[in-house]
Each structure stands twice: as structure tokens, then as C-alpha cells.
Amino acid sequence: MSPNSSSSHIIPVILSGGSGSRLWPVSRSSFPKQFWPLLGDRTLLQDTARRGADLQLAAPIVVCNQEHRFVIAEQLREVGINDARIVLEPVGRNSAAAIAAAALLVAETDPSAILWVMAADAAISRPENLPSALSTAVAAANKGYIVTFGMTPSKAETGYGYIELGQEFSDLPGVYAVSSFVEKPNHARAAEMRDSGRHLWNSGMFVFAAKTMLDELKRYEPTILQAVGHAVANRTADADFQRLDSVSFATSPDISIDYAIAERTQHAAVVPADFGWSDIGSWDALWELSPKDADGNATKGDVFLDRSRNCYVRSDGIVAAVAGMDDAIVVVTQDAVLVAHRDRAQDVKHLVARLSEAGRKEAVSHNRNYRPWGFYESLIQGSRFQVKRIVVEVGQKLSLQKHFHRAEHWVVVEGTALVTRDAEKIMVRENESIYLPLGAVHRLENPGRIPLTLIEVQSGPYLGEDDIVRIEDDYSRN
């Protein structure tokens, strides 16, 4: 690309704070949709990060939930991005605070640098059209505008916001004033805007100079700027991460950048673009983007269909067989099944809310739980016992810890384990086991060259994950 600003001064900013509840049961707050390969071999986060890298832009800034930091770092490394600045939010305060943090960090060294802000969980199907649109947006950002991209509506979508086009700027070809922003409409209003020729889908991407955004925050949301300013000034370095000060950041208002700035600024602009953007905000949207068979069905995983049309069927575990269904969504995971009509795909978030109200853990967490050292998953649980599979990556280790309410028995099924048990250090190999009595101080390490897999049998009156006293931890957890 050849925007008016040097590409090294265009900094991708990736916001990775959403939970993607409308793509439940695959996407949950413990492991949301941006970490899943929904449209190919790479995850949505990886695709997003590669956009900037492929255009030879500056190293990205990723603003994320601190609980996801190791997943993000690993997924970026997998696609060759080793220089990202990963900024950890101690609490969620919506996109305005996240963008303020990124702008403040950039302004420390170059207030005129251009930020290209995008969500980690959107898709672009025509990336070849992106450089031209970005170049146009950068030209406007260099003149002090806060620019977003607008997509021509292809249907009466109720899950997106809309932008009403104003006049084209005479000195900026392809850039238009924003007449108004329209929040997610009902179906009748969405159809009206689709047909108007004056409305575009709001992509939620923004392009602006760091100084411009900070000036507008000072004008419209000084409380956010002050709170986040203190959080950035008092940040600490934690391994490869920048950890924002928790006390200061928590005082920031919880508000989106749309409400805080975009709908109030006098410098809003929009670039109509055609790079195939989708926020993949529902299973119906994913069906539209996925390859389909002759009957219009999109499938992934172990799936069998019979006399079914225009369905989206996915299984991440057991076989999913669907017969005689039209326009259905069927999603199978290890611990949950979703069945819905494609016309009601937006309603999945209401179902997740009901699950949360009922106290169901499936609403927010998967059976497989990722940790910085690997992952674990529950295989079976009774009133006083639980069986888990634990996988520890090469060179990683769990915290030195103890439990007040449970004993554990570890059986190594693949790899080699180095186990600390009180004053002992014991090597446990495949088909060998070790017992850890209640109260024993213990640690599990993988000193080998392949991932370590073991079966853990817990027994005791209380088996909750909060029965852990960490004595020493390499990952700065409490």
C-alpha cells in the first residue's frame, strides 16, 4: 500500500475483549470466538493480526482481557508475529477505554502516528480491496478526521449498526461526512435503510491519528482520559505484557467508542469500502460465509445430513446427524448442543443470558480450560471424585501449590513428568503413577520433548478450582 503516511507509522490496534455470545456454545467468555478457526485453518485473531503484517505495517498493539494473555501471545507467535505489544485490561471497560489506552501508548513516542483500530473477531473475505480503502482512510486521518469504513448492506441486518452518508469531501476523494449513526434497528427499519442507497453497515473499524483521538477524549470524555492516563502512566511490565494499573483503570466509565466519541465528534468521516467485512455475529452469518454443498448446507466436523437444506451443522466432538431439516443451526460441543432456526440466530444471546441466570457454567466456560502451561478438561465427575485429562506443553510447569479439601492421583499416559511432592522430586514416566495426599505441596513439570498427558483422579469433599493455594507461580497468578 502507499498511504500518505509511512506504513511504519500506521499501527494496527486489535481489540480482543468480546465474548461472542451469539456464537455459543463454541464461543464463551472463557475462550471466545476470536480464538477459534471458524473460517479456515487460522483463528480470527490470527487473521486480524496478519492483515497488518501482510501490509508491512508497524507491530500491532493488542488490548485484551488479562486472563487471555497467554492464548493471545501463543496464537500470534504461531503466525510469525513476535513483536506485538499486548496490553492487559485488569477489568473490562468497553472500547473507549481500550482505545484511549492504545492512543496514549502510541502518543508517548509519536502523537501523529495513525492507529487502525479493529476488533479481533471480524472477517474480511476480499482482502485485496483493503489496501486502497486503508490508504484513503489514512489520508483523511492525516487531516484530523476519525474515519470508519462503511459496507454496502446486502440484507436487512438487525445485528449491525448503520451509517448515513453525508457529502463527499472535495479535497478527499472517496471520503464522506457522516450524517448520522443508527444503532441496531428492527427488521423494518433495517430493510428501509438497505434500500435507501444512503446507509452503510458500520464496520466498527476506526482510523485516526493518536493526537486527534486524545483531543476528542479530552473534549467529550475527560473522565475516561484521566482514568486511563493514570493507568497507562502507572503500568507495569509483566513478561511480554504491559499491565495497566488496576485501581486507575477501574475508575474509567464503561462506554463504547461509538457513544463516547464517534457519535459526538465534529470530525467523523466514512470511507465506503468493499472488502467483504463481516463481524461473524451469529451462526447465520457464519453459514453465509462458509462453503456449501449442492443443497446449501455448510458443515464442519463429524456430520451426516439427509434431505436437509440450507443448514449450518458443526460438531467438535460426537457425530451430528441431521435429517429432514431446512434452515437449521445445529452445533455440538463436548458439553452442550444448540439447535435453532437460522432466522432466530440473533436470539442465541438471550438463551445464553438465561443459562447464566440459571447458574449454568456452560454459559461462560468450556469443558476444556486453557492455562498458560497447557489445558485440562473434565472427563467425569461424581459427588466426591473427579477425573480430568491434563496436557502440559514442553518446558512448562504448573504452580507450586497445595489443596485443603482434595487428594490427587496422577497417571502419566504420554510423555514424562517431573513431580515435586513436598521435599521430593520424582520422575514419572508413561504408565506410571503418583499419589498426592491432601495438603501435600506439589508441582507438575514437563521436562521432555513432547507434550505431557496425564489422567488426574481427584477425591475429597470439595473439588472446586478455587481450592488452590499457590505458593510459587511462573505466570504471576494469585
Task: Describe this structure as you would to a colleague.
- There is one protein chain.
- This protein has 478 residues and is an alpha+beta fold.
- It folds into 3 domains: 7-278, Spore Coat Polysaccharide Biosynthesis Protein SpsA, Chain A (Alpha-Beta Complex); 283-357, no CATH class; 368-472, Sandwich (Jelly Rolls), CATH 2.60.120.10.
- The protein is built from 11 helices and 28 strands.
- The protein has helices spanning 44-54, 69-78, 94-107, 130-141, 187-196, 210-220, 222-233, 246-250, 257-262, 283-289, 348-357, and strands spanning 10-16, 61-65, 85-89, 114-119, 123-124, 146-151, 162-168, 176-182, 199-209, 236-238, 241-243, 268-273, 277-278, 298-306, 312-323, 328-332, 337-341, 368-371, 374-381, 385-392, 400-402, 407-414, 417-421, 424-428, 433-436, 442-445, 452-459, 469-472.
- The strands form 6 sheets. A 6-stranded antiparallel sheet has the order 18-19-20-27-22-25, with no helix packed on it.
- A hairpin with a 2-residue loop joins strand 18 (368-371) and strand 19 (374-381).
- The longest helix has 14 residues, at 94-107.
- It starts with 9 loop residues before the first strand and ends in a 6-residue tail after the last strand.
Nutshell version of this structure?
It is built from eleven helices and 28 strands.
Provide the residue-averaged pLDDT.
94
DSSP summary: helix tally: 11
What's the end-to-end separation, in Å?
45 Å
By DSSP, the count of extended strands is: 28
Which CATH-level-2 architecture of the largest domain?
A: Alpha-Beta Complex
Q: Structural class from helices and strands?
A: alpha+beta
Which class of the largest domain in CATH terms? Alpha Beta
**Number of self-contained structural domains:** 3
Helix content: 10-25%
Describe the main β-sheet briefly.
6 strands, antiparallel
Overall geometry: globular
Largest sheet, spatial ordering of strands = 18-19-20-27-22-25
Low-confidence parts: none
Residue share in β-strands: 25-35%
Which radius of gyration do the C-alpha atoms yield?
24 Å
CATH topology of the largest domain: Spore Coat Polysaccharide Biosynthesis Protein SpsA, Chain A
CATH superfamily of the largest domain: Spore Coat Polysaccharide Biosynthesis Protein SpsA, Chain A
